[in-house]
Specification:
Blueprint lengths: L1 E7 L5 H9 L9 E5 L3 E7 L5 H12 L10 H16 L4 H20 L9 H12 L7 E5 L3 H12 L4 E6 L2 H10 L3 E4 L3 H6 L3 E4 L19 E5 L16 E4 L1 H11 L4 H39 L2
Parallel strand pairs: 4-5, 4-7, 5-6, 7-8, 8-9
Antiparallel strand pairs: 1-3, 2-3
């Protein structure tokens, strides 16, 4: 039997997920697929039969129906990466291969055959929407971004299009910050200079892969006014900063809540997606039946040749 254990945003808070993610990785020599995102930590393992519940859940994950930002596309790449990493480390069973390959196919089919991804948002898009609402004179603000990745590049592109006057870009590896900064007319700065950088900053956007907070209360002057977007998991910014007068802090949960309040999914498209998932589950069962028939036929032939 193939099993799934999961910790996701529907059952556990951001703080609870962070505490779990911070635990030392459990030693598990069994072949498994580990899917880790800002919203979920899921482990799939075992051999043999797969329940409808496990199939439907993974297909919904791949389709973006289980995401906090419904229909988002990033989960497809994250799912593929988790599967390929498991393939490199372990010898997965045939049903496990089939489960993940068909899940990726289902996710692609849902986005192709429905409009569920129309108007779908990413964390970078929601951050941009909040910036538009809260900073009408954005071109007068000094923006500092910590972290170099697709998410921060999407935000940088928006800021460049808006002709934001000053953008600082920092990263653990300065060379990567310099490369991206050159592309978008930003100024790269060493992370060792973060206190000096923050002295001049009006808007701070953090999205690193650091396993711990990198921005603390003592990094800011006492009376500093600052708008902060913490898009990292685990968080980059010390949560206590939100209690500081003059500091407005948006973490992942608050950004996702903003999206749910302001951006609505067409119910009909979600229903279409569910019907496509039903069709793909039927196909999975047909494949399973065919494989079992072949196995039974081979066993019969083997018995006949060895009376």
């Amino acid at each position: 039997m193939i099993h799934c254990t999961l910790m996701d945003h529907t059952r556990f808070s951001l703080s609870e997920r962070e505490r779990y993610a911070a635990l030392p990785p459990a030693e598990d020599a069994r072949p498994h697929v580990l899917l880790k995102t800002c919203n979920r930590i899921e482990r799939y393992w075992g051999e043999g039969a797969v329940t409808d519940g496990v199939i439907r859940h993974l297909y919904r994950v791949a389709a973006g129906l289980e995401s906090s930002l419904t229909g988002e596309r990033a989960i497809q790449g994250q799912l593929k990466t988790a599967y390929l990493e498991a393939c490199e480390k372990y010898r997965l069973s045939a049903p496990m291969h089939r489960l993940f390959q068909t899940a990726m196919h289902t996710g692609k089919r849902v986005r192709t055959e429905t409009r569920i991804a129309e108007g779908a948002v990413s964390h970078s898009q929601v951050t941009v929407e909040i910036l538009k609402k809260t900073c009408p004179e954005l071109n007068r603000q000094v923006v500092s971004i910590i972290g170099v990745n697709k998410l921060t590049e999407d935000i940088l592109k928006f800021l460049t299009d808006r002709r934001t006057m000053t953008v600082f870009l920092s990263n653990r590896r300065l060379d990567r910050a310099e490369q991206l900064a050159a592309k978008y007319r930003a100024t790269a700065i060493s992370l060792d200079e973060k206190k000096r950088m923050l002295d001049f900053t009006d808007i701070l956007i953090c999205a690193t892969s650091a396993p711990h907070t990198i921005i603390h209360a003592d990094d800011l002057p006492e009376e500093k006014e600052l708008l902060v977007f913490d898009l990292a998991f685990p968080r980059d910014v010390e949560p206590a900063l939100a209690e500081r007068k003059g500091v407005q802090l948006f973490d992942l949960e608050q950004i996702e809540q903003f999206a749910k309040t302001n951006l609505h999914l067409r119910a009909g498209e979600a229903a279409k997606a569910e019907r496509l998932i039903d069709e793909e589950i039927v196909k999975f069962r047909e494949w399973e039946t065919y494989v079992n028939q072949i196995k039974n036929k081979n066993e019969c032939l083997c018995n006949e040749s060895n009376p």
